[in-house]
Specification:
Distance between the termini: 31 Å
Strand content: under 5%
InterPro entries: FA_desaturase_dom (IPR005804), Fatty_acid_desaturase (IPR012171)
Shape: globular
Helix content: 40-55%
Radius of gyration: 21 Å
Keywords: Membrane, Transmembrane, Transmembrane helix
GO molecular function: oxidoreductase activity, acting on paired donors, with oxidation of a pair of donors resulting in the reduction of molecular oxygen to two molecules of water
Number of strands: 0
Structural class: mainly alpha
Number of helices: 16
Order of helices and strands: HHHHHHHHHHHHHHHH
Organism: Sphingomonas palmae
Number of domains: 1
Protein name: Fatty acid desaturase
């Protein structure tokens, strides 16, 4: 779903970061040292997906069934974190070669995508644009806003508004999807504006063609049926309102965590110019060990987000090893080390300070 428009503070016409040239030694070393890490391991992917789903839905069922408020809260938090991990695997679907993980996309959509109303087409065909060298950080990047150059109030609004995501997704699939099948003009708007997990309000997407279009239609139909059934069964009392409310609250919690993670995934300092790969890397964030909490708020390799931008073809389970190798080999002066940060509070503080800095 697209976000609201956020005001920008005044900024220099040219971004200093955008003028950083590529460090060819770093890029060459990164490619050479990780050639043996590019193969996705199906066992890890499936085990992670199944475990996240079992824990997530099991804890959700406990939160719904229990009469204890304390148990409900604890179970709800566990469900939220587990389902967040499962949903984060949508990122892997946009990068992995599906021939190497046969059936995984269908499995993910069955267990996570359709039930949580974020079928994979919401990200496939969108996220790859974020990695395009000529698009990153520009107005054509669906996942970029120069938040560091905006007004201070935009940061809390950016985070808080994300909690409306479950309601927006329910409307998207239970109301807009069926209506758009009958109204061509509405269909155009739904496809272009309400079919992408993006944060750039100016981004518009096109309906894919061929096999991708057929997959889109199947997944959208399945998600629409589920969303309509959820509303009807709740309205008729088949699903207790408590169960529906807890499901929506858990979804809002997932969206909130993800938006906080998005807030610190980049430094957001580019003003719209094309950037070199090194500049893109330095505008992105790694939060490596010894920090522990990123395991929860940046799961499935997202704690190595800068490294992922450097080597987008690496599966998530290879990123920790790649980071260890590069950290050991690259000299201290290498730009590689400048993208690592200690944790969430420092990153949020850095971004907040940037928004109030005189320009």
């Amino acid at each position: 779903m697209t976000s609201m428009t956020l005001d920008r503070a005044s900024a220099p016409a040219a971004s200093v970061r955008a003028r950083i040239p590529d460090d060819k030694a770093m890029l060459r070393t990164a490619a050479e040292l990780t050639r043996d890490l590019v193969q996705p391991r199906a066992g890890i992917y499936w085990a992670d997906l199944i475990a996240s789903s079992v824990v997530g839905y099991g804890a959700l069922a406990l939160a719904i069934a229990t009469a204890s408020t304390a148990v409900m809260i604890v179970a709800g938090v566990v469900s939220m974190l587990a389902l967040y991990r499962g949903m984060s695997m949508i990122h892997e679907l946009t990068h992995v070669k599906h021939a190497q993980l046969r059936g995984f996309r269908a499995g993910w959509n069955t267990l996570i995508g359709v039930p949580m109303m974020i079928p994979s087409f919401m990200y496939e065909g969108v996220h790859n644009l974020h990695h395009a060298k000529t698009r990153y950080g520009t107005s054509e990047d669906p996942e970029y806003l120069p938040l560091a150059l905006m007004k201070p109030w935009t940061l809390p609004v950016f985070v808080i508004v994300s909690m409306l995501a479950p309601v927006g997704l329910l409307i998207r699939y239970a109301v807009l999807a069926p209506l758009s099948a009958l109204l061509p003009r509405l269909r155009t708007a739904v496809v272009s504006r309400y079919s992408a997990l993006s944060i750039n309000p100016s981004f518009r997407r096109r309906m894919p063609e061929g096999e991708e279009r057929a997959r889109w239609v199947r997944l959208e139909a399945a998600t629409s049926v589920w969303a309509v059934a959820l509303i009807v069964l709740t309205a008729t009392g088949v699903i207790p309102f408590k169960a529906f409310a807890i499901f929506m609250v858990v979804g809002a919690g997932v969206a909130l965590i993800n938006q906080v993670r998005t807030l610190v995934a980049h430094l957001w300092e580019n003003e719209g110019e094309a950037m070199s790969v090194t500049a893109q890397y330095l505008d992105t964030v790694n939060v490596p060990p010894p920090a522990l909490l990123p395991v929860l708020w940046a799961p499935v390799g997202l704690r190595y987000h800068a490294l992922h931008h450097l080597l987008p073809g690496l599966p998530y389970h290879s990123l920790a090893e790649a980071h260890r190798r590069l950290s050991k080999v690259l000299e201290p002066a290498s730009p590689y080390h400048k993208a690592s940060y200690k944790g969430l509070p420092a990153l949020v503080g850095k971004l907040a300070v940037a928004t109030i800095r005189p320009r």
